[in-house]
Amino acid sequence: MSPDPITPPPSEAETVLDVTGLAKSFGSTAVLTSVDLTLRAGRVVCLIGPSGSGKTTVLRSLNGLERPDGGVVRAPGAGLDIDFSGPVDDATRNRLRDLSAMVFQQHNLFPHLTVMQNVIEGPMRVQRRPREEVIAEARSLLERVGLDARRDAYPSELSGGQQQRVGIVRALALRPRLLLFDEPTSALDPELVGDVLSVMKDLADEGWTMAVVTHELAFARDVADEVLFLDDGVVLERGAPERIFTAPREERTRRFLERLM
Ligand code: ADP
Predict the structure, then answer these.
(1) How many angstroms separate the alpha carbon of residue 63 from the centre of ligand 1?
(2) Which positions, given as ranges, span the membrane (predicted)?
């Protein structure tokens, strides 16, 4: 059963999603070579690394938006064990997709729908859950991010930070098992970044399982349980944030961090 987003999953460390040897090429360009990643319940993994290193492609592969060419993805709780080097049927890909909800760099809200309509669209149309229940839950989630009063506004009437908070609520409303964030603050004006990061930190504190692609190193250091440094389609270095940020082992990690810190 999906966790209730208002009472998030407990933070026992069971494996939610485990990825080994993830590989993806676009044409003749290998974008991911062999990426391993384990997401445990209630833990936060941050993916950092230079632009073009493959971070987004990892997230999109976990969410079924990209079809990896190789690698095994297991989700023990959902009974999924998918080997992408062979054929994968649509039903299996859909089950993988339904495990997670993604928050994008640009919020991707429908401009012609109100905040509320944006939030309830997926749970009602895709998940076919009852309208009253979905609306009540959406209001409660919007309240949590301080936006219930704006539920009848259109996205264009909100600030970028508010739009992104609606994007997060829209993801939560799907009752996913895990949350994927793809640089959720990089398109925001600097003064709006803090509000969004603070919502994400609250979710982490509440026990959500999260994978976050970010350039916000202070956030990664504060919130992540594990940091992966990607470079050229491989995880060059991984570890506890304190270790990665204070004593990176790889020269490339060091240079990347020096540029950003
Ligand atoms: P990052 O998130 O680290 O910036 P991406 O995963 O977005 O990296 O991209 C990794 C590489 O894959 C980049 O060189 C990018 O140009 C390439 N790439 C991503 N998506 C596509 C696509 N649909 N077609 C061709 N190349 C792509």
Answers:
(1) 16
(2) none
Q: For residues 196 and 184, what is the distance between their CA atoms, to the nearest angstrom?
A: 8
Instruction: Give the number of other Cβ atoms within 10 Å of residue 235's Cβ.
Output: 21
pTM higher than the cut 0.90: yes
Q: Look up residue 28 and give its two tokens.
A: 């003749």
In angstroms, the CA 166 to CA 103 distance is 10
Q: Alpha carbon 253 to chain centroid distance?
A: 22
Pairwise CA distance, residues 144 & 261, whole Å = 31
Chain mean pLDDT for the chain: 93
ipTM: 0.97
Tokens 């049927």 belong to: 89
| Ligand 1 neighbours by CB, cut-off 6 Å | 26, 31, 49, 51-57
Q: 249 CA distance to ligand 1 centroid (A)?
A: 26
pLDDT tens for 55-85 read: 999 999 999 999 999 999 999 999 999 999 9
Could you give phi then psi for residue 223, rounded to 5 degrees? -105, -30
Q: How far, in Å, from the CA of 48 to the mean position of ligand 1?
A: 14
